[in-house]
Amino acid sequence: MNTSQQTMPDSGNRIFNSFLVQAWLVLLLASFFGATLAGIQLTLSPKIEANKLNETIEKVPELILGTENASAMAAQNQKIEIKQQFFETNVNNQKKIYNVFQARMDDQTAGWVVKASGQGYGDKIELLIGLDAPAQTITGLFIIDQKETPGLGNNIVKPVWRNQFINKSTRQHLTAVKTKASAPNEINAITGATISSRSVCNIINQTIDNLKKPLNDAAVAHPKTSDHQQEKK
Amino acid sequence: MADQPTALERFTQGILPENPVYRQLLGLCATLAVTNSMKGAMTMAGAVLFVLLCANVIISLIRNLLKPHLRIVIFTLTIATFVTIVDRFLAAYMYQMSKSLGPYIPLIIVNCIIICRCEVCASKQSVFTAASDAIGQSLGFALAMASIASVREILGTGMFFGFRVLPAAWPDWVIMVLPPGAFLTFGLLLGAVNWVVAMKKSEG
């Protein structure tokens, strides 16, 4: 049995047996690993942040101009200026900050891309909504992140379904219907994924409710913004 | 400890006779969760290889300093460090993959395969043996992941590594890429492996 621990209760042995001294290897490794991780985080975090931002910025031209126009522009080497802005809205005393990308061409606002998110059927759905300059019409929709049911709800990422939203007016709320969409504000829900379809519509409706006026104001109020903090793409 | 297996034995054992998934039934959370596509499964296997190799080497280097009651803390500390490194690297260089694997990369920290290898092999044997054990076990893990993922991806989406292998007319068996498909596939394959092993035993 552990006789060595039971004998010799002198003070020197007590210090040796204290938890801190016994754990010297744990402490040493913890500080070493901590420093390593801090170094890695410092080196890689700008790249990770850039990945997140690029994911959005890459989509801006086609969300505002449509896929064909955007690729035609890219072929002609025409550039859109993209400027990131934050809009703060205050609805029912709940502050919400929207990440908005303003696209500018020929010194005029060409449109807006808003990053919005909300609860879906499986998990949070994150999407990008393209709007024209006065925020009157939806010009595009892209799903950045979703964890809806494979084969059913995750069909929301398919262009066939997303393209229904193009050219919808922001005047009326969009509704997902199970039967064939007839009214201008109706969207065909995906068979077997009514909740996912409805969630996307709700996120869009809510975002437009909150941002329509601020975006409209911003597009008109600053026809010319100064060159600072403009990001050229 | 004269009866410890040699480096070569450790390596070959990991691949089939002691396959971490089919024979030891370890690390099943990740196995079931990320095998709905080959790409995800192979990224996972790569991440496990890196973490297991680094953890085994470090633990083996300090094996004479380990105290019995503090060893699990040190294992976890080492594993968590390398898992975080993998997680950050994936987020920086394979952003889409890191998003689709979601929490399962950080969850390698609690993957029993790694802590089991630290305990069974690395804390008792030399660095070289520990490294070959890590590679053998990771290859075994990768093989198991690949076998499940190929069944699930091909039947569930008609594709393999994202390339179409079945005719477009194939009615995708969506259930195969959903969680039930993981349990079905794994159960059937595990049964098949056990059957083969039993057959071999009765012959020998």
Mean pLDDT of chain A: 81
Strand order in space, largest sheet of chain A = 5-4-3-2-1-8
Largest sheet of chain A: 6 strands, antiparallel
Largest sheet of chain B: 2 strands, antiparallel
- Domains of chain A (count): 1
The fraction of residues in strands of chain A falls at 25-35%
Largest sheet strand order of chain B: 1-2
Q: Whole-number radius of gyration of chain B?
A: 18 Å
- Helix content range of the residues of chain B, please? 55-70%
Low-pLDDT sequence parts of chain A:
224-233
Shape field of chain B:
globular
Number of helices of chain A: 8
Question: What is the global morphology of chain A?
Answer: elongated
SS-derived structural category of chain A: alpha+beta
Topology as H/E string of chain B?
HHHHHHHEEH
Percent helix of chain A, as a range, is 40-55%
Question: Could you walk me through the main structural features you see in this protein, from its secondary elements to its overall organization?
Answer:
The complex is a heterodimer of chains A (233) and B (204). Chain A has helices spanning 3-6, 11-17, 19-22, 24-57, 60-65, 67-75, 159-162, 194-221, and strands at residues 81-91, 94-105, 108-119, 124-132, 138-145, 175-177, 186-188, 231-232. Chain A is 41% helix and 26% strand. Chain A has one domain. The radius of gyration of chain A is 27 Å and the shape is elongated. In chain A, a hairpin with a 5-residue loop joins strand 4 and strand 5. Chain A is of the alpha+beta class and 233 residues long. Chain B is mainly alpha-helical. In chain B, 67% of the residues lie in helices and 2% in strands. In chain B, strands 1-2 form a two-stranded antiparallel ribbon. In chain B, a hairpin with a 2-residue loop joins strand 1 and strand 2 (163-164). In chain B, helix 3 (38-61) packs across helix 4 and helix 4 (71-93) packs across helix 5. Chain B is globular and about 60 Å long. The mean pLDDT of chain B is 89. The A-B interface holds A 22-23, 25-26, 29-30, 33, 36-37, 40-41, 44, 47-48, 51-52, 55, 145, 147, 149-152 and B 36, 62, 65-67, 70, 73-74, 77-78, 80-81, 84-85, 88-89, 91-93, 95, 99, 102, 156, 172, 174, 177-178.
